Amino acid sequence: MVKTLIMAGGIGERLWPVSVKKRPKQFHKFGSNKTMIEETIERMEELTDETIIITTREQYPLMQYYLPLFPSENVIFEPMRRNTAPAIALGSSRFSPEDTMVIVPADHVIRDKENFLKTLRTAIRFAESHESLVTIGITPTHPYTGYGYIERGNVVDENDEVYAVKKFHEKPDYETAQQYFRSGRFLWNSGMFVWRKSVFDSELSENFPDLFSVICEIKDRPEEIEEIYERLPKISIDYGLMERSSRVVTVQGNFYWNDIGSWDAVYDLLIKDKNGN
User: Fold this and answer.
1) DSSP at 275
2) What is the distance between the alpha carbons of residues 274 and 87, in angstroms, rounded to a whole number?
3) Staple partner for 123: which of 1, 17, 147, 251, CB 3.0–4.6 Å?
4) What does the alpha-carbon distance between residue 161 and residue 259 come to, in Å, rounded to a whole number?
5) What is the average pLDDT across 37-65?
6) CA of 80: how far to CAs of 85, 107, 189, 266, in Å?
7) Spatial separation of the C-alpha atoms in residues 266 and 30, rounded to whole Å
8) What residues have CB less than 8 Å from 128, skipping those under 6 apart?
9) pLDDT, tens digit, for every residue of 152-206?
10) Distance from first CA to last CA of the chain, Å, rounded?
11) What is residue 246's three-state secondary structure?
């Protein structure tokens, strides 16, 4: 089966005072009559067989309010925030080895849904037929310093714009962002991933064995999840796994994507006059 894991436990502190602990940005509306988490669920329903959400207990009342029909049995609670590597690893425990996992954040704005779905279907097909960790890279529309970048390597599949990943790059300064943009070899790092659960387990055990062993402990002793999970470092999936693995590829996405990670990103969404106001 193909299943979605939605990461919905973040706070979005860079959008203070709109995004706060009591109501993070995924529960806000940006250019839509629905919250971002509602839109995320609807997009993924067209693509996968089942959706699972990982969040925190303190955010669950918001989920119940905005998503009253979402099945409670498909919600996983992260005991405390430990960034994306532990969250994804914990969420993966609800998937079978033969499942294909599609991991997406709950707080991104995506337009041109047709091209988004086409890109994700390409990633799913590739993940199902290869021992690879697939990440989605977005074609940049301008030099931007607010995103990390993926440097493309050689073409793996010309027909579907699948490339080996040469390197992940941190958010650049403006001059470097201009160089990235002009080169045509750099993509925005979207934080969306696709892989088979069995491949993820294998790569995690090889490249981040400490995290893998903790998740195994939690499976064996679920009643001790808080004490066990607290031992984990706060680390992103990029640092924890993707930069360490030799099996990473990227599918290039050509659709509007915005992570609403700053007020500049919010401004990009707004309809403007000829003076940019």
Assistant:
1) T
2) 43
3) 251
4) 22
5) 92
6) 13, 19, 25, 28
7) 8
8) 100, 196
9) 999 998 777 899 999 999 999 999 999 999 999 999 999 999 999 999 999 999 9
10) 47
11) coil
Distance between CA atoms of residues 218 and 214, nearest Å? 6
Extract the tokens encoding 139.
């074609």
Where is 158: in which H helix or E strand? none
- Read off the tokens for 199: 């491949």
> Is 60 exceeded by the pLDDT of residue 276?
no
Q: Which H or E run contains 86?
A: helix 84-92
Residues 261, 25 contacting (CB under 8 angstroms): no
Instruction: Give the contacts of 88 (CB within 8 A, at least 6 positions apart).
Output: 5, 7, 54, 103, 193, 237
What is the pTM (predicted TM-score) of this model? Answer: 0.89
Where does the chain show beta strands of DSSP type E? 2-7, 50-55, 75-77, 100-105, 109-110, 133-138, 149-157, 162-169, 186-196, 248-253, 257-258
2-263: CATH superfamily = Spore Coat Polysaccharide Biosynthesis Protein SpsA; Chain A (3.90.550.10)
- CA separation for the pair 41, 174 (Å, rounded): 34
Helix, strand, or coil (residue 265): helix
CA distance 238 to 189: 10
**Are 254 and 115 spatial neighbours (Cβ–Cβ below 8 Å)?**
yes
Q: Is the peptide bond before 17 cis (omega within 30 degrees of 0)?
A: yes
Identify the DSSP state of 20.
Answer: B
